[in-house]
Amino acid sequence: RKEVEQDPGPFNVPEGATVAFNCTYSNSASQSFFWYRQDCRKEPKLLMSVYSSGNEDGRFTAQLNRASQYISLLIRDSKLSDSATYLCVVNGLNTGGFKTIFGAGTRLFVKA
Amino acid sequence: DAGVIQSPRHEVTEMGQEVTLRCKPISGHNSLFWYRQTMMRGLELLIYFNNNVPIDDSGMPEDRFSAKMPNASFSTLKIQPSEPRDSAVYFCASSLWASGSSYNEQFFGPGTRLTVL
Predict the structure, then answer these.
(1) DSSP characters for B72-99?
(2) Would you place residue B105 in the very low, low, confident or very high pLDDT band (cuts 50, 70, 90)?
(3) Chain centre to alpha carbon of residue A30
(4) Strand, coil or helix: what is A41?
(5) Which residue of A65, B62, B99, B107 has the smallest Cβ count within 10 Å?
(6) Please, what sign has the CA dihedral across residues A101, A102, A104, A108?
(7) Which one-letter DSSP state was computed for residue B40?
(8) CA separation (Å) from B42 to A41, A64, B19, B37?
(9) Helix, strand, or coil here: A82?
(10) Helix and strand totals (H; E) in chain A
(11) Which chain B residues are closer than 8 Å to A97 by Cβ?
């Protein structure tokens, strides 16, 4: 089992739709969680951190469920510019010290 | 700030040749990461440094790969000899790590697209 798993998609949605991605992680000792965004042929960039209480940034909402070991990203009112790959990132202690694990990413296509 | 700088942006080489990738982190950052990204395996952490010291190199695939950070403003990732399966995009990232903090945002460079024929 991979340490961080994401549905690769692709998710094809029309403009204005609401779309949600989930990400599961295997290490229960994981401490911090993030969503990164990667545009085609570009580098990943931090989209938002994920807090236990859930957090919102404009049209984006992130949730963490420690009991079930998953995080989610909800995008409301999708825009064409939201088309990208969304990477789930999990960070925490393991036998080798702090380790950051990136998921393989979920591809999103928003259509006009 | 110029951000993380990587060179070259593209590299095409033949199997068996030595390849050296270069990275200049953001000034003031004290952690540096090397990643490899392929369609099959996604983004994999190869090695990371804190204050120029390698902390975790468990992701380095084999002895053909080596990384150095001689000072706070420069790092190299070397592959010798290169093989076709090394073809990937190699990203360098840097962050400002504070003692006691489990994570700080990583800023990625534009990547080096390596093709080994």
Answers:
(1) TTEEEEEESS--GGG-EEEEEEEE---T
(2) confident
(3) 15
(4) coil
(5) B99
(6) positive
(7) T
(8) 13, 23, 21, 5
(9) helix
(10) 0, 11
(11) 55-56
Q: How far is CA B66 from CA B59, B99, B108, in A?
A: 11, 26, 20
**Taking the CB of residue A45, how many other CB atoms lie within 10 A of it?**
15
**What single-letter DSSP state applies at residue A80?**
G
The whole-angstrom distance between A98's CA and the closest CA on chain B is 7
- The pLDDT of residue A99 is 77
The residues facing A101 across adjacent strands are: A90
- In the numeric block, the tokens 């093989």 are attached to B83
Name the residue with tokens 């050296």. B20
Closest by alpha carbon to B21, among B85, B79, B62?
B79
Dist. CA B112–CA B79, nearest whole Å:
13
Q: Does residue A25 sit at the B interface (CB-CB below 8 Å)?
A: no
Q: Which of A31, A43, A96 lies at the smallest CB-CB distance from B110?
A: A43
